[in-house]
Amino acid sequence: MLDAKTIQIIQSTIPVLETEGVKITRHFYETMFRDHPELLNIFNHANQKQGRQQTALANAVYAAAQHIDRLDEIIPVVKQIAHKHRSLGVLPEHYPIVGRYLLAAIRDILGDAATPDILDAWGRAYEVIAEAFIGIEQEMYAQAEHQWGGWSGFQPFVVQRKEQESAVIASFYLVPQSGGALASFEPGQYVSVKVHIPGDEFEQIRQYSLSAGPQHDYYRISVRRADGNEAYPAGKVSMYLHQQVQQGDVLWLSAPAGDFALQRQQQRPIVLLSGGVGLTPITSMLHALLEQPLQQPVVFIHATHDGEHHALREEIAQLEQREPLLSVYYCYTAPSQQDRAEQLFHREGYMEMEWLQRILPQATEAEFYFCGPFGFMKAVHHILEQWDVPIEHRHYEYFGPAVALV
């Protein structure tokens, strides 16, 4: 526990963290990776280059300062991050390294404003927060290893099958190389995939949602090829998976993780919304819901660019045909003439409140699950806010470091 003086000092730094937080975290990562390049085997290089990880950490430090007198309120966020840490292989011995370089970054960026009292207070606060992470992550490591079919660290999986699902998405069907049991998972969770791309100095780890239901004897991940543009370089791992990895190859996976999961005990109507490759965890949830005949209405809404970029369409169509309580709608932002001729979509353009209100007349009574690009997530969040859908009925997943939707 932190004493009143330490809490007061931490709270006094909130204004400077709001303005200088990203500068501090950017300096933190630069110096830590300079002195400990081996940690680049754990961290997502693309998120570092794009600045997403620095922003996410700055937001986390700022939230910790705001809640330093009631840290129990941020335990849900701690658990969400802890899932990612467990999936990546973050261990207790990494925390002292992170703490040392984070305090040094605060000192370097704030200069004379970082008094000994401030540095001491943040050192104490970091110890408390690190202990919370380590404790939660140790429980997660134990659960992942000791469950039926579970394992620790990364284990080899064979690509049993590879299928092109759209112009930019391919599915990989993965089975344990050992031939042993397959650990179950909650629909909505992800696995970490570790690859060593020829010519690269460091290993790369990426987290991909499981896109099939948990009732199969394989894991399926459906990966979008990140081709890159003027703003962002192409995604190394996704390009490698699409261009190099074939049936029979081996990928190294950590056990399923994540707190974005279907709450099966709910009897309320369910709305599943996805944009782009956010389709993957949402499709897993839909499969799980349909393991038994539905007892409540389920609405599945997917937004994508056009028919060429629409993955898993036939798979969803087969589910819709067999389940009368399932309704499916598609939104194409830039449909082709062929898409229009074949009537492959229900709305042209982006999802908007008026259209959603027409197809979701009982929206305020439903459980919402949504996943997709940031713009999509922000738009859905805003609509649900305007509808006064309670926060406990909104469930969503970020691809990558968490950012604010407001």
Produce a short descriptive summary.
With 406 residues, this protein is an alpha/beta fold. Helix content is 41%, strand content 18%.
Can you offer a commentary on this structure?
The chain is of the alpha/beta class and 406 residues long. The chain has three domains: 143 residues, Globins (Globin-like, Orthogonal Bundle), CATH 1.10.490.10; 101 residues, Elongation Factor Tu (Ef-tu), domain 3, CATH 2.40.30.10; 128 residues, 3-Layer(aba) Sandwich (Rossmann fold), CATH 3.40.50.80. A hairpin with an 8-residue loop joins strand 3 and strand 4. Helix 1 packs across helix 7 and helix 5 crosses helix 7. The two termini are 32 Å apart. It is globular. The chain has 13 helices and twelve strands. The strands form two sheets. A six-stranded antiparallel sheet has the order 4-3-6-1-2-5.
Question: How are the secondary structure elements laid out?
Answer:
Blueprint: H1 4-12, H2 14-35, H3 45-50, H4 52-66, H5 75-88, H6 94-110, H7 116-146, E1 154-164, E2 169-176, E3 190-195, E4 204-209, E5 219-224, H8 236-243, E6 250-254, E7 270-275, H9 279-289, E8 298-304, H10 313-322, E9 326-332, H11 337-341, E10 347-348, H12 353-359, E11 367-371, H13 374-386, E12 394-397
Parallel strand pairs: 7-8, 7-11, 8-9, 9-10, 11-12
Antiparallel strand pairs: 1-2, 1-6, 2-5, 3-4, 3-6
Helix pairs in contact: 1-7, 2-4, 2-6, 5-7, 6-7
